[in-house]
């Protein structure tokens, strides 16, 4: 069984000219490679699995070429001595995955890859069936790592240090993180999720996991799901210079920019205290910069 580590995550204030106070909880610092929400989402899933004392334990999961989840599962496997398999979207990567920073790190962590076409990747049930037949004792973790156990694990992102905040904010991908924050938030707290993916079923999925109605979803920028805009890169670089906190271009950078935008427009109650969770994802900067530089665009400061 894996132990819940002793942890003291810093909360830092981001001084702005807005009429609210903004703070950031550096969950990205929980572990050097299994950063942010992923650590808590995985810990509970793997613990439940290990309780059943599987013979030859094995973790299998899904993800895209730059996936934070793939990076984290591979690092988790390395840290706790459990072999890992990644089912990767896009069989065009089969011959050149070594050029991809996320996959090459995951491979160094010992992850084995199976590349599948984008079409086959859509059919996760079939893939799960296939892998379970081949590896009946394995744990198949859903894409993004979100499920009931992940939601339970997220309770450790909350504690005495988060109780006084009026708003708790996070970036939303598959919804497990915000569902956990919503489930374990105090009665007086409003939970705000900044959505970075196009998925109209998210609200229902989160409600089922959270069983509460204390959250609101707001689009980061509905025209730019999964895309990196020059404006966001400039914001991330400015933010780093100003506050020395690095942000990633897919989740936390978009969340922070949107929260600044909302604060400027008076969305939050005057004088309220807002806490944003830094959910990690910084490993994706290398891959993003490879892309931005290839297009002659401004990169993210590394
Ligand atoms: C850095 C980062 N932040 C936030 C999220 C969103 O978490 P969730 O998928 O639980 O909504 C993810 C996705 O896993 C992520 O990688």
Automatic annotation (TrEMBL):
InterPro entries noted in UniProt: ACCD_DCysDesulf, TrpB-like_PALP, TrpB-like_PALP_sf
Pfam families per the UniProt record, alphabetical: PALP (PF00291)
Every Tryptophan synthase beta chain-like PALP domain range: 10-280
Keyword Ribonucleoprotein: no
Cofactor: pyridoxal 5'-phosphate
Origin superkingdom: Bacteria
Alphabetic keyword roster: Pyridoxal phosphate
Keyword Ligase (UniProt): no
Protein family per UniProt: Belongs to the ACC deaminase/D-cysteine desulfhydrase family.
Name the record gives this protein: 1-aminocyclopropane-1-carboxylate deaminase/D-cysteine desulfhydrase, PLP-dependent ACC family
Native source species: Epilithonimonas pallida
């Amino acid at each position: 069984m894996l132990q819940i580590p002793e942890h003291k995550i810093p909360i830092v204030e981001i001084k702005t000219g807005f009429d609210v106070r903004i703070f950031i909880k550096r969950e990205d610092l929980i572990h050097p490679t299994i950063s942010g929400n992923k650590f808590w989402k995985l810990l509970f899933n793997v613990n439940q699995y290990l309780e059943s004392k599987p013979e030859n334990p094995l973790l299998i999961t899904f993800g895209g070429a730059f996936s934070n989840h793939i990076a984290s599962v591979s690092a988790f496997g390395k840290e706790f001595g459990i072999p890992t398999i990644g089912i990767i979207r896009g069989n065009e990567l089969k011959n050149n995955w070594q050029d991809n920073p996320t996959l090459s790190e995951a491979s160094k962590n010992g992850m084995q890859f199976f590349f599948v076409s984008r079409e086959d990747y859509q059919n996760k049930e079939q893939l799960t069936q296939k892998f379970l037949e081949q590896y009946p004792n394995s744990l198949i973790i859903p894409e993004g790592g979100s499920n009931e156990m992940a939601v339970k694990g997220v309770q450790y992102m909350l504690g005495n240090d988060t109780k006084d905040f009026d708003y708790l904010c996070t970036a939303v991908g598959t919804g497990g993180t915000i569902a956990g924050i919503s489930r374990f938030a105090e009665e007086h707290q409003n939970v705000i999720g900044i959505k970075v993916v196009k998925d109209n079923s998210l609200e229902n999925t989160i409600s089922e996991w959270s069983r509460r109605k204390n959250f609101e979803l707001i689009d980061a920028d509905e025209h730019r799901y999964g895309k990196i805009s020059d404006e966001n890169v400039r914001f991330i670089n400015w933010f780093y210079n100003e506050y020395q906190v690095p942000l990633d271009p897919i989740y936390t950078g978009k969340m922070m920019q949107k929260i600044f935008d909302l604060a400027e427009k008076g969305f939050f109650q005057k004088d309220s205290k807002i806490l944003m969770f830094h959910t990690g994802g910084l490993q994706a900067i290398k891959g993003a910069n490879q892309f931005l530089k290839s297009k002659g665009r401004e990169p993210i400061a590394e």
